[in-house]
Amino acid sequence: MATVLIGGGSGLIGQRLSELLLAKGYEVIHLSRKEDLNAPFPKYKWDLQAGIIDERALSKADYIINLAGAGIADKRWTESRKRLIVESRTQSTLLIKNALARLEKKPKALILASAIGFYGDRGREWVDEDSLPGKRGFLAESTKEWEASMHQSAVLKIRQAIIRIGIVLSTRGGALKPFILQNQFRLGNYFGNGKQYYSWIHIDDLCKIFIYAMENESVEGIFNGVGPNPVSLYDFVKSLAKAMDKRAIMIPVPTFAIRLAMGEMADMVLSSTRVSAAKIESTGFQFEHPELVPALKNLLKEESR
To answer: Which residue ranges form the domains of the chain, and what is each CATH number?
Structure first.
């Protein structure tokens, strides 16, 4: 039985990924700030600030997946918060890389999370893995720095795949929950003009991309972790109302109000990023939930069980 070590395993994606890996017969262990080897997914200690990582976990790992990083939407973007967002991502990658360099036994693959924030605000333009990074904004700048730390690990001569994650749909948390809540009151709030593209993905499809990248030796380099059919925010909100069998009153929230309330963080909801999934599909990966309304219905059905 192969062992998968996950950094950031306690997060939204990490928990679901751990469940799916376990169901496939893998042994799953986590890196955590507190050791607990008796946890359902045994936790081995790491400390990014101190540069400490339990090398027993790395020695056990046949594969390593790193999802670690401070939540991008958890708190307002003060300068100190932005610094933490960047450092929690770059330091975790470099800590793993430096520890692996000292070990004789190397994992078969290193699968790393990035984000489509790399592309910045691109309007209606289709972007793919060969597109240039965004020219401005914290999301683009921080993701470029994040990926720079990943490229440094290439010297380890371990197969590496980087997954640029889009807007993850899950009823357990993330971007979808607030929209579900407002639709329960038959409100369909959208931000700005609603024309900005949201490149969404069902959480199970995203987790299966990580597993697919891990299991397939031909998958190497950068891949977008998005579904094949991005939609405008307006259509996203309408689709959710349809999936919930409700008629929502569509109400725009003016850009200035969003900027006033969220400051620089407003870029998360106002930016438009129309991201292609063609590269991962060209490797043979097949999406289980490629269309938005059926994907939403699936998530809502699972939540009601």
So the answer is: 3-304 (3.40.50.720)
Kindly report, residue by residue over 27-64, the tens digit of the pLDDT. 999 999 999 999 999 999 999 999 999 999 999 999 99
Phi, psi of 220 (to 5 degrees): -145, 140
